[in-house]
Amino acid sequence: MSATSLVLPAGMFSTKEQEQVRDLIQKFSNQQLQWLAGYLTGLQHSNQQLLQLINRIPVTQESITTEPLGGQDSITVLYGSKSGNSKKVAKSLHDKLIARGFTAVLQDMNQYQPNRLKEEKWLLVVVSTHGEGDPPPAAEDLHAFINGRKAPALKDTRYAVLALGDKSYASYCQTGKDFDTRLAALQASRILERVEADVDYEETAEVWIDTVVARLQETFSGSVLKTAANKQGITTNGAATHKPAIHYSRKNPFKSIVLEKVQLNGRGSAKETYHVELSLEDSGLSYQPGDTVGLWVENEKSLVDGLIAFKKWDPNSIIIYKDTPLTLFDYLQQKAELTTVSGSFLSAYVPYINDPADAHALKNILADKQSLSSFVYGRDIWDILQEFPASITIEELTTVLLPLQPRLYSIASSFQAHPDEVHITVGRVQYKNKNRIHRGVASNFIADNLEAGKEVNLFIETNESFRLPEDGDTPVIMVGPGTGIAPFRAFVEERAETGATGINWLIFGDQHFSTDFLYQTEWQRFIKQGTLTRMNTAFSRDGRNKLYVQHRMQQNAPELFKWLELGAHFYVCGDAKRMAKDVKQTLINIIQQEGKLSSEDAHEYVKQLIKKGRYQEDVY
Ligand SMILES: Cc1cc2nc3c(=O)[nH]c(=O)nc-3n(C[C@H](O)[C@H](O)[C@H](O)COP(=O)(O)OP(=O)(O)OC[C@H]3O[C@@H](n4cnc5c(N)ncnc54)[C@H](O)[C@@H]3O)c2cc1C
Ligand SMILES: Cc1cc2nc3c(=O)[nH]c(=O)nc-3n(C[C@H](O)[C@H](O)[C@H](O)COP(=O)(O)O)c2cc1C
Predict the structure, then answer these.
(1) Pocket of ligand 1 contains residue 527 by CB under 6 Å
(2) pLDDT digit string (tens) for 192-222?
(3) Is the pTM of the predicted complex or chain greater than 0.70?
(4) Which atom of ligand 1 is nearest to the CA of 486?
(5) Are 254-291+406-430+442-461 and 476-619 equal in CATH topology?
(6) Pairing of strands 569-574, 615-619
(7) Distance from C-alpha of 120 to C-alpha of 78, rounded to nearest angstrom
(8) Residue of 333, 374, 443 to mutate, ligand 1, most atoms within 8 A of C-beta
(9) Looking at the domain 476-619, which fold is it?
């Protein structure tokens, strides 16, 4: 394509500008244009359209090199990821560096030898935050190392950090912040300020990648650069490559139809757990066992009505939210996070509190992670407005409230077994606090509104760190009490469907055998078929003493250790606060006891299981 045949986007350039662009392109050699393309990639967010234009510039194959840059120190792209987002970003950065001719290695923190740090000249870190401001399991060791006394001086290291997180958590992007500040404290030099990316991380990540690459290109000037021609589905001859018709995502969810909803608990149970089947037909969506599905829902009418009446607001008053006029009622129902309270909300709310003593008390709570976590548990926004009266207008409130977030559910089905469907297992969250019944937004929306034929917006989130072993012969131990059973229904279905020959052991727990044995008949069928080799149950309220899954593990310690020694992968899903911790500790005790090891060696044994991906958690 010559510059004269270049088609410029209609209405974007004046006639004079069109001439200037064509002149410019004619003046430059192909090599110069390629350099410009790379440079503009880095600036793409400030000049997206021009980048697209440059991307259309023809490139001769001879001028593209895949040779590493001579004399360039290797760049390490290091990621710490749980559900796979940071891994995806790191991989994309690595691919781009390689495509530009850099020597670069992609490295999972889980597999990284910390003492290699001091040798790193160029370190690009992508890391998420989990738990309550904690590193993802894969980053725990390296995080501890850089914060420990053995951390070396890193005078020769240049680095950049992209932190992935979720603004609704009090410790937003904490792990990324920790890496950034510790690397600086160890005298490494930033090539770029830290960038933090919220749940819709893709765009920010893409900009970060391009900026990092551009910065490195500037540094290694004189290098032979690849063009940005493959970007955005444009090939070197200018033709568009295949693009999927619609890509459904968190931002662009799929409108799914509810196929079925069944209450899994029997009459008289204290629990309400629902099995929900959702259609994926015509969505192009698929998933693997271990993945999660995100649901977008809205707040209950009674909660919104109550809040408006309490504040004596007019539900029909119009507010502008993200440039769109909405009634106050619609805003509160559809857009605002009302049933959970976060540190970010409280920090933004404090300045409006009437009584300075109240504001001071809240600030103290905010300053301590533990206090904050126990303070917000069981409170909703209405509680805060009631307990801490404030002079805040509706408009101000809209800037203080956080956007309503989708809720995630472990997928309870195998796509192989149920093509075009996704199943979930949802427990209704309902509790009394300050004489008012509080009801979780999503679980109650699902329980009360999602009947067969109704619609709900969903998206799939991959969870790379919760996967069946690649080898179907490998034994699997699954511990999933309550709704923690969900992914194991997917695991067992998948193993049955794929004819995997590995032995499978499921340990399930709940309150009562007669009312709470979730999916009982399905497990019986799998046992009969031989897919489920072993199943233990722990019904905590059927006997005189409380009996939990970890007690069943302990009772079966010799067998469990034998399975581990046979190479079993161990999985735990469900409650993060107590259950997962107790299960892990029990596993360590069993290994110590059965392996006749010291406590230290038993801890190391589990650490190695984690490192090898043989101990995996999906806890919440
Ligand atoms: C990766 C992942 C997988 C998950 N998988 C599942 C799954 O398979 N099944 C499932 O049911 N859930 C699952 N969850 C949890 C799910 O995402 C929701 O958090 C859960 O359904 C509650 O959401 P909600 O909107 O109903 O409640 P929210 O509106 O989010 O309210 C929850 C809040 O209520 C308060 N609260 C809850 N219980 C009590 C109580 N007993 N006493 C006092 N206060 C309380 C706490 O402050 C809590 O933060 C998963 C979460 C994650 C992150
Ligand atoms: C259970 C759970 C806890 C989380 N805790 C935090 C947190 O404390 N702070 C934060 O910024 N993000 C938190 N996040 C959000 C993740 O960091 C975010 O989803 C990120 O994109 C995950 O990236 P990864 O797939 O690379 O792990 C949490 C997510 C989950 C599922």
Answers:
(1) no
(2) 999 999 998 999 999 999 999 999 988 886 5
(3) yes
(4) 8
(5) no
(6) parallel
(7) 11
(8) 443
(9) Rossmann fold (3.40.50)
Lining ligand 2 with CB less than 6 A are 81-86, 128-133, 136, 164-166, 169, 171-174, 199, 201, 620
Q: What is the dihedral of CA 285, 336, 344, 398, to 10 degrees?
A: 130
Ligand nearest to C-alpha 618 = 1
Site to probe by mutation for ligand 2, drawn from 130, 196, 200 as the one with most ligand atoms within 8 Å of Cβ, is: 130
Query: How far apart are the CA of 337 and the centre of ligand 1, in A?
Result: 14
Per DSSP, what are the bridge partners of residue 427? 273
Q: Ligand 1, from 129, 261, 299, 429: best to mutate by most atoms within 8 Å of Cβ? A: 429
- Rounded (10°) angle between helices 48-55 and 30-42: 150
- What is 254-291+406-430+442-461's CATH superfamily? Translation factors (2.40.30.10)
Q: Please report, to the nearest 10 degrees, the dihedral formed by the alpha carbons of residues 142, 147, 148, 153 taken in order.
A: 90
Distance CA 392, CA 401 (A): 12
Domain spanning 75-230: CATH 3.40.50.720: no
**5-29 residues labelled b (16+ CB within 10 A) or e (exposed):** ebeeeeeeeeeeeeeebbeebeeee
Contact indicator for 52, 233 with CB cutoff of 8 Å: no
Return the ligand 2 atom nearest residue 173 CA: 11
- Residue 382 and residue 307 in contact, taking contact as beta carbons nearer than 8 Å: yes
Cα(165) to ligand 2 centroid in Å equals 5
Q: Whose CA is nearest to atom 29 of ligand 2?
A: 130
Whether ligand 1 lies within 6 angstroms of the CB of 483 is answered as yes
| Fold classification of 301-392 (topology level) | NADPH-cytochrome p450 Reductase; Chain A, domain 3 (1.20.990)
Are the CB atoms for 464 and 83 separated by under 8 Å? yes
Query: Hey, what long-range contacts does 516-524 have (CB within 8 A, 24 or more apart)?
Result: 516/265, 516/266, 516/269, 516/271, 516/273, 518/264, 518/265, 518/273, 518/425, 518/482, 518/483, 518/485, 519/264, 519/275, 519/485, 519/489, 522/489
**Long-range contacts of 87-91, Cβ-Cβ distance < 8 Å, separation of 24 or more:** 87/126, 87/464, 89/126, 89/162, 89/164, 89/201, 89/205, 89/208, 89/209, 90/124, 90/126
Condensed to tens digits (0 to 9), the pLDDT of residues 450-479 reads 999 999 999 999 999 999 999 999 999 999
Burial of residue 367 (number of CB atoms within 10 Å: 0-12, 13-18, 19+): exposed
Task: Please give the number of the atom of ligand 2 that sits closest to the Cα of 408.
Answer: 31
Weakly modelled stretches of the chain, pLDDT under 50: 1-4, 41-69, 223-244
pLDDT of residue 169: 86
